[in-house]
Amino acid sequence: MNMAEIRIRNTGERISGEENVRAFLEKQEVLYEHWNTEKLPDELKEKFVLTDEEKNQILSAYDEEIRDLAERRGYKTWDIVALSDATPNLDELLKKFEQVHTHTEDEVRAITAGKGIFVIKGTEDVGYFDVELEAGDVISVPEKKPHFFTLMENRQIVAVRLFIEPAGWIAEPYDDPAFSKEA
Ligand SMILES: [Fe+2]
To answer: Where does this protein hold Ni(2+) (predicted)?
Structure first.
């Protein structure tokens, strides 16, 4: 099973293995769950340009998981986001994404194809850390926790987003001199 991995930016330390990743993220108050990727039809596991019909196919493949998560945590709407080199202005989009920010509600992503990274500001002793996500990984960054999201080298991802209120997801810039992109 593919699983998320953690990289602590200050030390370069990596954390892998389900139990370790879970324990670390729990301490950082980041929700982490995993969905069974076998539920997704094979032809959608490596497809990054999606028709509306295909997006709906993904949502129905994971309908049970989505509704369970929504019921537990109060999400009211959900959709699919797909990014790849076929996305118009991907470089500009990524530049915009890669700014540390906060939201007034938590940011939930369930990766259904490809890879992505959440960079999150952890507790004082940890500092910034990366969560490298793969298909099946589900994460929620708590409200008010500084973070940003970006792609990995393959530059392609499909994810389910869940919202309490789409308006709660507006990014508020978080200016942090302690953050270095190069780390
Ligand atoms: Fe965000």
So the answer is: 101, 103, 107, 147
